[in-house]
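Listing S7. Sequence submitted for prediction.
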Amino acid sequence: MKRTLTALLALLTALLLIRPAAAAARTVPVTVDDALLRETCYLESGSTLVPLRGLLGLLGGWTVSWQSGQAVAVSGSRAIRARPGASSFTVNGVSYPGAVSLRNGRTYLPLRPLCEALGLSVQWDGDLGGAAVRSGRARSYDTEDLYWLSRVISAESRGESLEGQIAVGNVVLNRARSAEFPESIRAVVFDRKDGVQFEPVSNGSIYDAPTPRSVIAAKAALAGTDSLGGCLYFYAPALSQGTWIKNNRTYYTTIGCHRFSLYFSIQIPALR
């Protein structure tokens, strides 16, 4: 009996020690000049951790390689060196405090000191629920495009994740680029060639003010964040059977409550 109690106490102690560490980190979104960083980012002990290659990829102009046990990123005369396990990284030989870690084969650095080292601004965005990085390069949006894209995203998917909202925006943008649909975002939203395309146009919710998160999703989609490739269709199985789409278009993926499909359909010959 005594051995059993001792073993149970040891197990309980171990669980109490492990639990805080497991709950310490959570995933958070990070944007760079409105584009969403697609790789997983973490909030841990009050610090946002980002994959070095992913962040620099959105900034553009950087080459990242692995040399002698460390990540080396080069852009013109600037060079970043980050060795996993170290408590700091360097930019052009100058050391900056920030633990470097290796997660799923990717080198992670704390976002704020990295941004400060590169001359970028970063702030926590409550509507995003994550960190927004600005490089200083102005990104402009057509007022009408942002107006209607944010509204159709909000009306169709306001309860979805940021990725799900961006995906709805991707469908609208893909249609505007496709020869099968009108050429502008507004025209796509109000397209009636084969009947009303978006339910919010029928019920009037397309005119409701968009949520702040839907505006973020619209800007991310317009900035080039793409979750879907060439998908042109989506529907919510909980609200619609989507019979025509299922029978005539190729299923691609499901994000949240929406199923997304490509334009073409795959015809499988009948067995003889």
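Caption to Listing S7: primary sequence and predicted structure tokens for the chain studied. The radius of gyration is 23 Å. The longest helix spans residues 2-24.
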